[in-house]
Amino acid sequence: MMDFSSPVLPVAALGLLLVVLSPSVIKWARTNRCSLLQSLRLQKQTTSEIVSLRIYPIKSCRGFEITKTNLRLQGLDLDRQWMFVDAKTHEFLTIRQIPQMTLINTALSEDGNSLLLSITGSDEKIQIPARPDPAWLAAHTTLSQVKIWDTVTDGHVYGDAVNAPFCRFLNRDVCLVYKGPTPRILQGNGDPRLLGREQSTNFPDVHPVLIASEASLAELNQRLLRNGAEPITVERFRANIIIRGSVPWAEDSWKTVRISSERGQELDFDVVARCARCQVPNVDPDTGEKHKREPWDTLMSYRRVDEGIKYKPCFGMLSAPRNEGVVEVGMKFEVLEETMQHRYIKGF
């Protein structure tokens, strides 16, 4: 009779397991600095729920939390439909160059028809239509070419009445721009040849929707505390859909996910890439001040996990919706398919 209390059998079984496992699985486990046992969960579906929805109407400006909204193929309704550009070059501006942009606040009016803009520490307020129709745009804006990264697209450029307060605040000539009618086709991991369809977005860096996990944020915050830094909120990462999550960094292997309601609505997403981070999360959205080291240093110490972009850490997953519908906090979130083949491809 075999003695199952002997330590020999578990060791032998583990050795056999290491032989059977493909090199790619072992490499994935090492890359993500997780245990071999965690890597074996790849075929197990993950179920969670949405705990927060966040919209950032103006690129690099402060957004707001919402409990329910519409999902479009281009992203969440109103998300990154505006951006600021340099008044002369019409090139986009972000927190990367101007951390104080996060002190420009956005909100919706009670009826949801107007976008309310304000500046922290200032009494100036601007109100513009949240969903301007062609007639309003023709009367109040000028359709022009604008540049975001290496892409030239069109945008409706607002006039001095809207721009003046922000020029004074940022101490430079800027213009607010609303995305024009020409589709901005996804590139990089969202290229039609890879995605299998042609899809567009507004003014995010690369892809329509960014999904993040509370479990991963909690794990990062534990490391920040051990490093003597303050914990941070998910707002630093400017994600759209935040799920509760259970296993930190399980999102690294997502390929297809679904959001569903008790009424039977199902919204599917192709998770096209990990989100490689710059130092925008170092900027405190409450003050506009950029920390010299964190959370960048901590993320760099263990989240350089994508071979396609080895010198940047990753947090969150970039995705492209397959269909449209209502999304709200509390909806079920499921991982339908996983992959070990994610590799970041530059999309701008």
Automatic annotation (TrEMBL):
<dbReference type="Pfam" id="PF03476">
    <property type="entry name" value="MOSC_N"/>
</dbReference>
<dbReference type="GO" id="GO:0030170">
    <property type="term" value="F:pyridoxal phosphate binding"/>
</dbReference>
<protein>
    <recommendedName>
        <fullName>MOSC domain-containing protein</fullName>
    </recommendedName>
</protein>
<dbReference type="Pfam" id="PF03473">
    <property type="entry name" value="MOSC"/>
</dbReference>
<dbReference type="InterPro" id="IPR005302">
    <property type="entry name" value="MoCF_Sase_C"/>
</dbReference>
<feature type="domain" description="MOSC">
    <location>
        <begin position="180"/>
        <end position="336"/>
    </location>
</feature>
<dbReference type="GO" id="GO:0003824">
    <property type="term" value="F:catalytic activity"/>
</dbReference>
<dbReference type="InterPro" id="IPR011037">
    <property type="entry name" value="Pyrv_Knase-like_insert_dom_sf"/>
</dbReference>
<dbReference type="InterPro" id="IPR005303">
    <property type="entry name" value="MOCOS_middle"/>
</dbReference>
<dbReference type="GO" id="GO:0030151">
    <property type="term" value="F:molybdenum ion binding"/>
</dbReference>
